[in-house]
Write a structure and sequence with these properties.
The chain is of the alpha+beta class. Among the domains are: 3-126, Immunoglobulin-like (Sandwich); 133-215, Immunoglobulins (Immunoglobulin-like). 20% of the residues lie in helices and 39% in strands. The strands form five sheets. The chain has a six-stranded mixed β-sheet, covered by helices on one side. It is found in: Membrane. Keywords: Glycoprotein, Membrane, Signal, Transmembrane, Transmembrane helix.
């Protein structure tokens, strides 16, 4: 007996006994995407004959249900406009943007003369997985064999499962494994490992491949070169940074010291002093003026320096020599 015959036998028993028969279906929804909750063709035919149907879903209180949509002989009411759509062609319900709170038990009910027919759908919502990444946890090269531990992870996704397999171009069972961790040993002369990691959940699947051999000669050489450069360049960079720090500190310390005031500048202006020395031959005899044949007075020229100006006092721009006349009486020997 086929499945269709069993199904119709089940429906017939419900009709005969007049009881409400319920069938549960599981539908997988993707987070953030549209999800369609459909009903089988048998329920579509029953809806057209009876003319009355409703979409409901369960609530936190098991004794309560939330009405989403009602249909009555071509007329319908949408209780969640903007969130759900009802398709008259097949009486299906479409959730426009599936969210985690939409993970509920949904029920499509047909009201008949003496009984009710129900089609129940359990909606399960999953976040799709992102592209997996392969990380090298540990590797060791010894006795011409490379032993490596790989870990496959994803950043997003619900109920994620991992599996390892060989690439399509290789039939080697080297990478066959279930789980995120893979421990394998292989010949390091192989330039490429034929391993791929697949991350999947009930609504999505993503695969990534191992790009190169971990213990290859090229990778070992690049690793040693990188360590050598690190050992040489790092001390030089540290020395340059320290020298820069000391230089900045020295300059800052000098800038904080108060400026020493410069010593007062000496007045270098030269002044001419005319002095006359008179021999006392005749008391109270005036001195002959300069330029006579027999002068009785002697003129003395001397240079004198002016008094120093106070510090930071501006000097005159047109400072001229100053002449001083003085008379000196000398006794006659």
């Amino acid at each position: 007996m086929g499945y269709s015959a069993l199904f119709w036998l089940f429906i017939s028993s419900c009709w005969v006994w007049g009881i409400g028969c319920r069938t549960v279906e599981t539908v997988l929804g993707t987070l953030g995407k549209a999800t369609v909750l459909g009903v089988p063709s048998e329920f579509q035919n029953l809806t057209q004959r009876s003319g009355t149907a409703t979409w409901k879903r369960s609530m936190e209180n098991p004794l309560s249900k939330e009405y989403l949509f009602t249909y009555n002989n071509g007329n319908y009411t949408n209780y969640k406009p903007g969130e759900i759509l009802f398709h008259l062609s097949n009486f299906s319900l479409e959730i426009l943007s599936t969210q985690r709170q939409d993970q509920q038990l949904y029920e499509y009910s047909i009201t008949m003369e003496a009984h009710e027919r129900n089609w129940q759908i359990q909606l399960e919502v999953y976040e799709p997985v992102s592209d997996p990444s392969i990380h090298i946890l540990d590797w060791m090269l010894a006795n011409d064999s490379c032993t490596v531990t790989l870990n496959c992870t994803v950043a997003q996704g619900d109920n994620v499962s991992y599996s390892w397999a060989s690439s399509e171009a290789s039939t080697s069972p080297l990478c066959t494994h279930n789980g995120s961790l893979l421990l394998l040993s292989y010949d390091p002369t192989n330039s490429i490992l034929p391993c791929t990691c697949t991350a999947s959940n009930p609504v999505s699947s993503r695969t990534t491949a191992l790009r190169s051999s971990i213990c290859s000669t090229e990778q070992q050489g690049s690793w040693r070169t990188g360590m050598l450069l690190l050992g040489v360049v790092l001390p030089i960079v540290i020395l340059i940074v320290l020298a820069g720090v000391f230089t900045v500190a020295y300059v800052a310390a000098n800038m904080r010291q108060p400026r020493e005031q410069s010593p007062p500048t000496e007045d270098s202006t030269v002044h001419t002093i005319y002095s006359q020395v008179q021999r006392v031959e005749k008391p109270k005899s005036p001195c002959s003026p300069p330029g006579t044949d027999h002068p009785t007075c002697t003129t003395i020229y001397a240079a004198a320096t002016g008094a120093s100006l106070p510090p930071h006092s501006p000097q005159g721009a047109n400072m001229e020599p100053m002449t001083v006349y003085a008379s000196v009486m000398l006794p006659i020997s």
